[in-house]
Batch of 2 targets.
Target 1
Amino acid sequence: DEVVLDMIRRASDKSIGERVRFGDLNGYLQANLYNNGIDLPFHYEVLDKEGRSVYRCADYEEKGSDEAYQQALFKNDPPTKTSVLKVHFPGRRDYLFDSVSFMIPSLIFTLVLLVTFIFTIYIVFRQKKLTEMKNDFINNMTHEFKTPIVSIKGFAKLLQKDNLDQKTHDKYLQIIETESSRLADMATNVLNLNKIEKQTILSNITSFNLSEQIRNCLLLLEKKWSNKNLNLIIDFDEHQIAGNQELLYQVWINLLDNAIKFAPRDGKLGIKIIHNQSDYQILISN
């Protein structure tokens, strides 16, 4: 061990020029780089233990030296006496770009496939949701139409009896008339929905007081919200808008009617109008 340590110590004391055959260094580097799949122009220099350049290749250039790879020439030398070989590649960035450039079309193609897949999934789920909404609408409308039809049919059969007094007879006729009007209104609403969807009914635009219209809707439904003892929370000023007054009236009636229907007894019914720069937001809560 003492002999080996002494040999190392004496060798590290020698100059780097005495320990390295610079003439063979270029061929050695080129062969090993090529064997590792790197066929690029390179420049190198050798630094002594004090960091001074003691040898450079014949065509040495500073370009790319800020991204140089360095390695200790003799790993057993003490840290204070270590000489370093620095190698850099002027065409390193071009080489890296060329290495991945062939992948760019594949990445673009993959991205297109991914976007198409996501869009297809979105369309499928959206179509599924629309189908479910359509089925729900058909089921609800079937139920709503069935109720007055059954009432009309039932009272019409009762009217066929001969033992009815005039008062009962008139009462049944009134119910049939009311249910017929209700059935006609529902049919009209369905037709209006179809026209709204096709944008063929929005030509009758007038200017009117939105706040007053909502207050009139509340008065119309007063019996319903009074029976449930709902506390009205009104939060809006006077707002003048341009729109189809008749259709919006039906919208507020439907929304308020549903809010009252599903509100708990002794609960609340809130109505708020928010005016932004370009639109109005009507919030109905229970």
Note: DSSP finds nine helices and nine strands in the chain.
Target 2
Amino acid sequence: MRVVEDFASVRSLARGVVGLVPTMGFLHEGHLSLIGAAAADTDTVVVSVFVNPLQFGEASDLSSYPRDLDRDVALAESAGADVVVAPGVEEMFPVAPETVVSVGSVAAPMEGLHRPGHFDGVATIVAKLFAGVGPDRAYFGRKDAQQLAVVRTMVRDLSFPIDVVGRPIVREHDGLALSSRNVRLSDADRLKAVTLSQGLMAGADLFESGDASVDEIIGAVRRRVSADVSVEYVEIAGSETAAPASDLGGEQFLAIAGRIGDVRLIDNVTLDNGTRTVDRGTRLDGPSILYEGGS
């Protein structure tokens, strides 16, 4: 496996069908599942590691984001990556950027309301990665369901010749959706955070019962979440449009965002109204590699 810092080197190493797994580093099993899927589908697997300053609304969140490139390289290689590209700010922004990619209505609700400018930052960097790497396929986790809709809309509207592949959420053994931010939770706060996923599962159960409305499902979620969690939103939205829905229909996702202390977490489950089933993701059997060598 090769580790490079610039896109020209990536393109010189790529062979055959190229799969890209964009990450901000501090990899966990969710990222590794994406790398494994790319390894099964493509000839060259490229993993990008770049902590994107454009998508952080709070300087404290950016500064506290965990970083360990050596660890990321070892894990990416073990999962099947061929190239890790870890561009510096000078590679991503050789001059101060004047172009911003804004994806419109799909980026406006939910995360767009609570993190203004977030998706402009995501779309701009993902577009740069697509242009720099030139992948045939790009792999994203469904934990960021609205982000997946934003990326797919951008790819469609800008005619990127890329297949965007969404993969199931990977959860910790207690159901908490895997996130690099989980390492910042104290033991007490973790017990509160787990109620986010427990709320979603309560809503999923009600959905699968077959006779619940949007409002009833959202109510079931909110009732299960700890009062110590500051819930920013609970919504059912269209998987393609990310538009909050008042009725059930087609493929949708049930999403939640909340703060536990200074840690902000998001989660969702995918609702298939055709089969009345829910994709709840997969669970680890034990502790995540996020905690190896930690407390």
Note: The longest strand covers residues 251-260.
